[in-house]
Amino acid sequence: MNVTGMSDEELCPHEMFVDIEWSGRAVAVSLELLKPVKFDRKTVEA
Hints:
Layout lengths: L1 E5 L10 E6 L2 E6 L10 H5 L1
Antiparallel strand pairs: 1-2, 2-3
């Protein structure tokens, strides 16, 4: 799965959500639930 963007901040002001594409649909998921598979130093710092 790939993160396609940031979700609307109004979705949940206490947590960061990102948009992913899953089974051909756009879905908002908590960033805390995702683990990076391919990343570089800048990604880890963010």
